[in-house]
């Protein structure tokens, strides 16, 4: 008698990014080949907490090629609410992890594929250990800060968006003799700023990994102007600190705090020190939305197929990863334990210095 196929759950967790739907599509298509069932869990793992669970059954017919091109996630996602310390409406904190695990088991699933960044994968791994179910992680983050993978789904698109922003800022900067400051996302890693800054021809790139001296930034810009160029482009990563060492945060509804605001501070300082007009653009969530780049579609497709194949091979607690031109798999614990900042002796830092881009320290 033929062995019955598996039933697997898939969810997207943490901040969205371009390419998530392409991962979902690849997982569903590969699972369909193996005659497995796929259940999409909505709003991250939160969909497992309700009765009935918030789910959608996915099959080859429900995942057409539109999903390759579609930003966001059809499953919804969230970057709030740790099940091990869940904020209750009355202000208390409760551990709901057992309820979430029960929600998973009640679906009759054999394994879970979790698409997430470091925070989400760490939580999903704890849930998988508690519920004793196989978990395969797929790395996604525009920040590209997850360890043991050269790149994650969403990063390439975010860099393309930030690069396009510089392409658009350059002519208006030149027309008005202005210094344009572009603040980009990235959390505590400067990957987006560094990559987009090089690709978009920035004169100054400030990242959290390299402490800067504002006088050096100003003197670099002044020398550009003295040499006859009337404009300059500055890219700054959101976690860059002020000269006094403060990490700037915005507070949002419900008390949530997010990085932001360093661009404005630098804009004022650079204007005063350089005696020139500055304007500040905060790119924000534009970096996460829109169509995924071809590179992100490829990565997402390769990751999705490999994630299903890992389950078929009986592997557990592995994260698919990109290394040396191919898909590999690594331990989820090792990947989340290694926060991947920009390496000081890495190729892109050397490239920026070789192009005479000011990184704020020289
Ligand atoms: O981690 C992805 C990210 O976009 C960061 O770059 C940014 O700091 C944060 O999420 C923004 O979070 P939210 O979507 O909650 O505003």
What do you see in this structure?
By secondary structure, this protein is of the alpha/beta class. 36% of the residues lie in helices and 19% in strands. It is built from 11 helices and 15 strands. Strand 14 (318-323) and strand 15 form a beta hairpin. Helix 1 (20-33) packs parallel to helix 9. Bound molecules: 6-O-phosphono-beta-D-fructofuranose. 6-O-phosphono-beta-D-fructofuranose binds at residues 15, 79, 141-143, 185-187, 238, 258-259, 288.
Furnish the topology, listing elements before pairings.
Blueprint: E1 7-12, H1 20-33, E2 37-41, E3 55-58, H2 66-69, E4 86-87, E5 93-94, H3 97-106, E6 111-116, H4 118-131, E7 135-139, H5 155-176, E8 178-184, H6 191-199, E9 204-206, H7 214-226, E10 232-237, E11 249-251, E12 257-259, H8 262-274, E13 277-282, H9 294-312, E14 318-323, E15 326-331, H10 332-337, H11 347-354
Parallel strand pairs: 1-2, 1-6, 6-7, 7-14, 8-10, 8-13, 9-10
Antiparallel strand pairs: 2-3, 4-5, 11-12, 14-15
Helix pairs in contact: 1-9, 3-4, 5-6, 7-8
The structure holds 6-O-phosphono-beta-D-fructofuranose.
């Amino acid at each position: 008698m033929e062995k019955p196929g598996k039933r697997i759950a898939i969810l997207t967790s943490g901040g969205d990014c371009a390419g998530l739907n392409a991962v979902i599509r690849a997982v569903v298509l590969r699972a369909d080949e193996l005659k497995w069932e796929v259940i999409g869990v909505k709003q991250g793992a939160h969909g497992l907490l309700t009765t009935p669970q918030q789910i959608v059954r996915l099959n080859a017919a429900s995942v057409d090629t539109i999903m390759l091109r579609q930003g966001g996630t059809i499953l919804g996602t969230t970057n709030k609410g740790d099940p091990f310390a869940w904020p209750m409406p009355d202000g208390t904190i409760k551990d709901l992890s057992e309820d979430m695990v029960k929600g998973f088991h009640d679906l009759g699933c054999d394994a879970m594929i979790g698409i997430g960044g470091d925070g989400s994968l760490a939580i999903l791994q704890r849930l998988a250990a508690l519920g004793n179910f196989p978990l395969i992680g797929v790395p996604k983050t525009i920040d590209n800060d997850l360890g043991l993978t050269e790149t994650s789904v969403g990063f390439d698109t975010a860099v393309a968006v930030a690069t396009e922003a510089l392409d658009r800022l350059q002519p208006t900067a030149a027309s008005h003799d202005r210094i344009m400051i572009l603040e980009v996302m990235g959390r505590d890693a400067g990957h987006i700023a560094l990559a987009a800054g090089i690709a978009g021809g920035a004169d100054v790139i400030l990242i959290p990994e390299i402490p800067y001296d504002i006088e050096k930034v100003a003197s670099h810009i002044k020398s550009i102007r003295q040499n006859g160029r009337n404009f300059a482009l500055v890219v700054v990563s959101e976690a860059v600190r002020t000269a006094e060492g403060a990490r700037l945060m915005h507070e949002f509804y419900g008390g949530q705090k997010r990085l932001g605001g360093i661009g404005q501070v630098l804009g004022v300082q650079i204007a005063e020190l350089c005696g020139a007009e500055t304007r500040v653009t905060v790119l924000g969530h534009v970096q996460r939305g829109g169509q995924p780049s071809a590179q992100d579609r490829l990565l997402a497709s390769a990751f999705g197929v490999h994630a299903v194949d890992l389950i078929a091979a009986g592997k557990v607690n592995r994260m698919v990863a990109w290394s040396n031109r191919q898909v590999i798999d690594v331990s989820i614990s090792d990947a989340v334990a290694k926060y991947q900042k920009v390496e000081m002796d890495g190729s892109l830092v050397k490239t920026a210095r070789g192009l005479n881009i000011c990184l704020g320290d020289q």
